[in-house]
Amino acid sequence: MTTAAPAKPRRLVRLLNGGWSTGLFLIGALFDTLCVINVPGGATLTAGEAPKAEVTTIGVLLVLLVFACWTTVYVRSRAPWAPLIAGGLLMLIGVSYALVLVGVYCALVRWPRRTVLISGITAGAVALFVLREVLTDWGHALAWLLGMDPIGADPAWIGGAMVMALLSLGLVAGLVAYRRARDEASISRVEAEQQHERADALDEQLARQAERERIARDLHDGLGHRLSSMALAAGAFESQAAAAHGGPALAEWARVVHRQAHAALEDVRGVVGGLRSDSGGVADAPVASMRQISGLIADLRSAGHRVDAYVFLEGIDRTSPAFDAAAFRIVQESLTNALKHAPGAAVSVLVDAAPDRGIRVRTVNRLVSVSSGIPGGGRGIAGIRERAVALGGTAWIGPYQGEFIVDVSLPWG
Question: Where would you find the membrane-spanning parts of this chain (predicted)?
Fold first, then answer.
């Protein structure tokens, strides 16, 4: 199955984001500190062969304001309005529009549907800022650094200010376009991975359904045929035993065999129907329940087996169907195992189920050297353990002091 690439650890992402924010804060604050001389009264500029700028008291206050405003870059992703407001304040004072552009970039990424409105307002504000720089005493910094005369409206100074504004706006537009293209590519990649996962899941589902169909055919054609033949033979045997007056015991045994063969055939048909259904359930199969334990024991006694049983059931209507069915199947398999490997020996059965105690199943039979001759593959014991573990229970199975014990405890489902 296709799996997505693991995401970066959140701590690493936070560190990277914090590093970018700190770098942006330092660069932007230092840049705007130089731009404080844009504001009239922020610094005293001396031209000549050795130009010099002396920051005034107002300039010191403006520097502190610059650093305070640039701290908003740490929340720019969650709250783009913070650098927008702080940058707008610096822009209104006349420092620079750098922080505004940072806020505009984050706002365009966060609110793409407002691109036209945000872009129009930004372009207009930057244009007004540039006009104020080139037409008034505001904006001495760049001209002074370049050795130009801003008061005389040097064409080079005017052109430089406009080119810088256009480049700044173009850079923001390019970054926004790149970010949106990257996000769209990421979304497309995620959608493609999800499509691959859904396709893989569908392939697995189809493979499981095909396997269920194969198992259903094998059960129906193989085991179903044998059980049908056995049920017919048992019915004929019952009729002949009754007609030949072979005794009530023989007739009763024939009826038990006939009934068990018919029940097994119904179970197989239910399982086959469930395997062939889309849901994979067993809607047509008889529902196994602890209520059937008494009938199971009665059938075994009718067939001549010695079964000593203590069954105490309380509140089983409030337990989960999965736990109810599992308890019955465990009892059924435990008795089958005892009758198979200890024919003729008495079997002791204890079933105790209550909400406050959970579900306890315990079967004990004496170990004997004689086998029933019925072949077994050890799947029954393994199945009991698997059922117990799957439902959060425990199972102790094995010989102890001349007896074979199956002791299973399940929680109250």
Answer: 20-43, 55-75, 81-108, 115-135, 155-178
